[in-house]
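I need you to check the entry underneath: sequence plus fold tokens. Let me know what the token row says about the fold.

>
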Amino acid sequence: MVIFSPRVRILLVSSEVAPFAKTGGLGDVSAALPRALRALGHEVRVVAPFYQRVRTSGRAFERVLPPSEITLGAHRYTFSVLASELPGSDVPVLFVDCPALYDRASIYTEDPDEHRRFALLSWAALKLCQYQQWAPDVVHANDWQTALLPLMLQTVFAWDRLFERTRSVLTIHNIGHQGAFPASILPDTGLADAASSFHQDQLRGGRLNYLLTGILYANAITTVSPTYAREITTVEHGVGLDPFLRARRDVLFGILNGIDPGEWSPERDMRIPFRFSRDDLANKERDKEALMSAMKLPYVRGVPVIGIVSRLVWQKGFELCDAVLPTLLARRDVQVVVLGSGEGRYEELFARLARQHPRKLAFHRGFSEPLAHLIEAGADMFLMPSRYEPCGLNQMYSLAYGTVPIVHATGGLADTVRTWDARTGEGNGFAFEHFDASGLAWALGYALETWNRREQWARLQQNGMRDDFSWTRRVRAYEELYRAIAPG
């Protein structure tokens, strides 16, 4: 059987790459995975859109593809490709520059051409390979925005021998976002000649689903935790795509995301005022004092602080907080710090609680990278009551900083957080099984009881800080997968 040489050529295409453009975990993964693959000697190139925020970032870019034209349906676009490097590595990041589609204030929009914005990204990625005569062993697509790539390789680019050994991987970071559009947009994908390859029942029903198309044609499908890989094959969590995922279960893999210890380590983090380690946690208390000052709350030694850093959206389960936190704040010695923005109902929830308990809860609307790091370092506990969570990264950051996570046992949260067992001294956090107010109340109560047993709490922190969630371990699973789908 023929397999890849030790050096694999990987083209990773993503709508986000940190630090250039990021709204969540996708941006982090699209930077950390290529960096980890390159560290193992693989040849990796990343393709992403040249958004307005990238254009105005002040970075230097080199043009590597001159202006080219592409027709998508009745629309003609001119694009070029600019290159930079992923910070901390020599991995090239190749930005598709098409001002007509990407020069906007937001990464994602509700504009009527959203389907064309990301169809062009996929076309441009493969055309760049042709221009440079660079044959990837693997094209790694991410989420619906690039999910047309597997079909493109098997249809409109199949004539080109450059891609005859190229295989595709599609990673589903969140199955709730599918890129579902009216079937009338088919010509705008540039794939009208491959219309018979799209899901015909869906087309007849007036729908075209980018993510489904990728699921049907990718050589391998991954998602970002083993538990989530099982969950999305169920009616409850599959968001309508579970029958197709069950049909392709033999090529569906759950690979837990990792974190970058260069970015998230209490020993090396330059965004926190005081660094500390598993062997010496003394400075964590000083970071807690700095956090209270930053959030304009009184610092009270011996009172636990619960941190929240999150998008404030339905997925994250914050309606449970509305049912539990008022009683907790009224009856217990505890403080809460919240950083995030999103749906108005959740923003108002935390704003109201801050007004009602001005010495116990503080809410910073928006996002701040330095404050996110300070919360991870200075808080004693970290709350993630997500309704569902494909992987989650904040619970891993928290464990690295000795900040004990309290989570709903779903997806990657179930794979990373093990409930503390006082009898055995095992566990690294608190996970509640049932997504309801009583489940969250139980987990918070158990955490606060354990907090009062200082020796147990110290053991609990040590357990979490020993866990290794670095990409150094995770990247091996991708190596094995890339080799497994090699042509025979």
User: Anything to note?
Assistant: The chain has 18 helices and 17 strands. The radius of gyration is 23 Å. The chain has a mean pLDDT of 96.
